[in-house]
Structure formats: C-alpha cells, structure tokens
Amino acid sequence: MIGIRLRDWAMRCACPLSCLAIFSMFIHPAAAEDVVLVEEHWELHVGGPDSDSSSPQVSMVMSPTNNLFGDYFLFSLNYGSVPSFQPGGMQLQHWYGDDIHSSTNGPKDGTLHHDDEVIRWTQRLSVHNSQLTLEIVDGVSQTWGNFGGQGYLKASAETTTSNLNAYRPFVSLGESGVGFAGNRVSSLILTKLRWVTSDGEEYETVAPIDIDIDADLDP
C-alpha cells in the first residue's frame, strides 16, 4: 500500500467539506505543543453478514505520518491475514513499508453473524519514550462483546520521532475500508478525532465522516 493524494481521499468520503476541515486542522494545529496521542473513534454498521464466507472483511489503517513508507498499523475485523488467512475475529498488524514486523490476534475468533449489527471501537496511537504504540480500546459489538484495552490488541515499535505532528487523518480515511463484501456493510464512519499534546491539553472534533464503501460484492 502507498499513501494517497488528498483529492483521492476527499472523493471517497461522503462529506468532502468535513473531510477537508479535519485535514486542515492537522496541517495547521491550534495547539503550540507537540501532539503525543491521537484517537480515531470508528463505527461500523453491518447490514447482512455471512458467516460461511466470513464477510464482510474490514481493514483499518493508521499511520503516524502522512504516508505508509515507514511505520504504520493495520487492524482487521472479521478476518486475519498473517501468517495466512483466518476467518473471523480481529488481528492487529505492525508494518514498516511493505514489510510486516508483527501481528497479534484478539481472543475471540467468531465470525460476524447478526443482521444490522453496529460495532464501535477506538484506535489509540501514541508516542512515549521512543516507543510508537497503537492499541484498540473501548470496542463493543454484538458478536464479540467488549474488546480491546487489555493489551491483546496492542502493537509497539521503537521510533526516533518524539511527536505525532505529521499524522494526517486522510491516510486512515483513504487506506481503510471494506476489502470484501462491501454490499454487506451499510456504513463505516469516523465519528470523532481526539488528540492530546505534550502539555496535557486535550482536543477533539466531532464531524462524522462516512467512508464510501467499495462495491466489492459477495455473491
């Protein structure tokens, strides 16, 4: 995967003006201090899942920078792909460019099977003491119950950066999506962004952005 252009990302969003407003916020942040933590709050609305084909299959990407040439993380829902395909459950992967460095599975491996299920979770990216960390927290679903926040969906990597000032939400919005059976998903929404600076100040913006679901059909 490679980073996308701003125009490509904005065209994928259901509300381009909201997308551009959030993008501008991180180009010209209001805070003078370094950003050390960013949270993306997500909501997935499943229409009619199919447990036999483990569909739909969703991949969420989050990077500390405006590209995928260095460290980034991939969170998969309803499947895993490392070391080989696994139906159901969740998996968190740490990548550096085209190379995968680590993967960890959630403790629950069932496949989505409830019609009109809504899944909510938060992707928390932070940097502290030369460690870059992505953890899934505050997850809730009908199929898997509560998930995340207990260390099993967490990945860390050594880093030379001391802040997340280069983070751009358009990378997550452009690279994330439904890789299989988009017709079984009603919406995939970034509901809120929250970030914390090195002086402890907290900021957030609530501007729901619905990613345009790919038309990859499940027969």
> What gyration radius follows from the Cα positions, in whole Å?
16 Å
- Low-confidence parts: 1-11
How many independent structural domains? 1
SS element count, helices: 3
Total beta strands: 13
The global form is globular
Structural classification: mainly beta
**Fraction of residues in β-strands:** over 45%
Protein described:
There is one protein chain. The protein has 219 residues and is mainly beta. The protein is built from three helices and 13 strands; from the N terminus they run ααβββββββββαββββ. The strands form two sheets. Strands 1, 6, 7, 8, 9, 11, 12 and 13 form an eight-stranded antiparallel β-sheet that branches. The chain has one domain. Strand 7 (131-141) and strand 8 form a beta hairpin. It has helices spanning 6-12, 16-27, 169-175; strands spanning 35-46, 57-62, 71-80, 86-96, 99-105, 118-128, 131-141, 145-147, 154-158, 177-180, 185-197, 202-205, 209-211.
What are its keywords?
single chain; mainly beta; about 220 residues; 8-stranded antiparallel beta sheet
State the gist of this model:
With 219 residues, the protein is mostly beta strands. 12% of the residues lie in helices and 46% in strands. It has helices at residues 6-12, 16-27, 169-175, and strands at 35-46, 57-62, 71-80, 86-96, 99-105, 118-128, 131-141, 145-147, 154-158, 177-180, 185-197, 202-205, 209-211.
